[in-house]
């Protein structure tokens, strides 16, 4: 993503290793990977506390970005205010989705739960195409266009800001789950719903809260991506990219989600690098994560940090 | 699945095991099906090409949905990659015919068999995974196969797509909708008969046992790995068959048609029709194919009240698919076939239906 034009030129370089390019792509990979990690965290949060797989995670992210864009461009609000409004909107949206769509399906087989979020994702995608159009729209420049030099490489400020914001969100997650009362309630519910309920935790509230937090954090990731690239419905592909990330990290581990995200981000860029330099197969950027996904599922389905599922009769 | 009473006519006692597993539950049911097929033979006489082409598409999608129903409804596996197999069948049939010159009529089932092989390879993860993990694995296979189609120029023609010949049967070119209709009807009848029979065979019961409780099934001596991979194979066969019919109907195959959206539509068909129900697959295919037409009508009439809604028809159609999936799962998770059974039961038990 950084200096894509420079990358294309260097493909002509032949078989010689291009260390600068490799380094550049790895920095790209880490920055993009951390964003994947943030989205993967949202995904894992919902899975862990409500046992629902959210196939509409990518659409949540895009919706958040669109809403923020709408407030900035149409209502002419200052960016910070628009960002806060968008986060509020997405929080309410997440709670509504949980209450209206997911709550009736508690206890239904897993295919129903998967399909209902897929249905939601189709619905939201079409709705956003309709309301916001299917072209890419830019935010007015917020971070500025300056670049910063790191180790001889030019990195745009926007990327650095997204890096900082990703790390900040992760820190917030850590604090929330480790030290706050609600975080404790959520961990208890994830551990065992019945026990949590008998200790006076409202499981309904926890479920709604999980969706609210997930939608809110998706909104942050969406706005960051919108600032870096542009807002468009094709950003929803990140909702699919999240699957390799969470499987590599382990489906029920939040730390795993972050690490999985970074691994997938790096892997994409490395696959692109080696493909561009040596193999010339093409399109490895999008497909390589899915090959890894299948391999991981075959040898270690619970991922790097997930809990191994042991079934007893 | 919740229990729906299925009252039998007086005197039908089913004294033998074979009577209990007959293809049709009652004589009336059997005759309805025979008469229905007989009536379908004459439909091209009464309907114009638009209706015939819709019926052809319904037939093709119903075959593929039936395959998915074997996998999801019978065996309880989840596949998000069905359209990739559908696409593989389409490309395989065109490729076989273009390279080897085998008549298309034979290529169509052969393409089904090739897809079976591919389906069983991609079904190998199913031996170890289930539920959500399997859903994600099949999602990956969808993307991998889609990538393969756009890359393998020798097989699929790459980005340009490939041409599929007209089906020639005993010297007759099946180049009009009316003629092609009979070919599709033939394969629909064969497929539905095959799956109905699978359901009442030893293997079919094994598949259902795997779905209901896989540990108990294994304890009873059912080889889980074998049956899970087998159900992937059977499902891919019908997907490939449907795909091949689709290719030779359009006479052109291109990569764009076989995206994850189509996979989701296949899943929507069997959920709306009824999971694990043979006739439900047909109902679901009819529903999903007629839904856009219906929404078109709705949008046209809404345009009289709301200005400018005409331009957004495409979005409304797409949204309706998503909305229908959600609404069915919330309000009628067992599908149209369940609703039909309820209606039938209340009719038969009329004064005392509760």
Q: Biggest chain pair contact, residues each?
A: A-B, 42 and 41 residues
Helix content of chain B: over 70%
Q: Could you give the order of strands across the largest sheet of chain B?
A: 1-4
SSE order of chain B, as H and E? Answer: HHHHHHHHEEEHHHHEHHHH
Description:
- The complex is a heterodimer of chains A (313) and B (354).
- Chain A has a single domain, classed as ABC transporter involved in vitamin B12 uptake, BtuC (Orthogonal Bundle), CATH 1.10.3470.
- Chain A is mainly α and 313 residues long.
- Chain A has 12 helices and 2 strands; from the N terminus they run αααααββααααααα.
- In chain A, α2 (19-50) packs antiparallel against α9, α3 runs antiparallel to α4 (79-102) and α4 crosses α9.
- Chain A starts with a helix and ends in a 14-residue tail after the last helix.
- A two-stranded antiparallel ribbon of chain A has the order 1-2.
- The radius of gyration of chain A is 20 Å and the shape is globular.
- With 354 residues, chain B is mainly α.
- Chain B has a domain at 26-259.
- Chain B is 71% helix and 2% strand.
- Chain B is built from 16 helices and 4 strands.
- In chain B, the strands form 2 sheets. In chain B, strands 1-4 form a two-stranded antiparallel sheet.
- The model of chain B has no long low-confidence stretch (mean pLDDT 84).
Secondary-structure map:
The complex is a heterodimer of chains A (313) and B (354).
Chain A: H1 4-10, H2 19-50, H3 57-73, H4 79-102, H5 110-132, E1 147-150, E2 153-156, H6 157-179, H7 181-191, H8 193-198, H9 203-228, H10 238-249, H11 254-279, H12 284-299
Chain B: H1 17-20, H2 27-41, H3 43-46, H4 49-74, H5 82-100, H6 104-123, H7 131-151, H8 153-156, E1 162-163, E2 168-169, E3 172-173, H9 177-199, H10 202-212, H11 214-219, H12 224-250, E4 252-253, H13 260-273, H14 278-302, H15 313-331, H16 335-348
Antiparallel strand pairs in B: 1-4, 2-3
Helix pairs in contact in B: 4-9, 4-12, 4-13, 4-14, 5-6, 5-7, 5-12, 6-12, 9-12, 10-12, 13-14, 13-15, 14-15
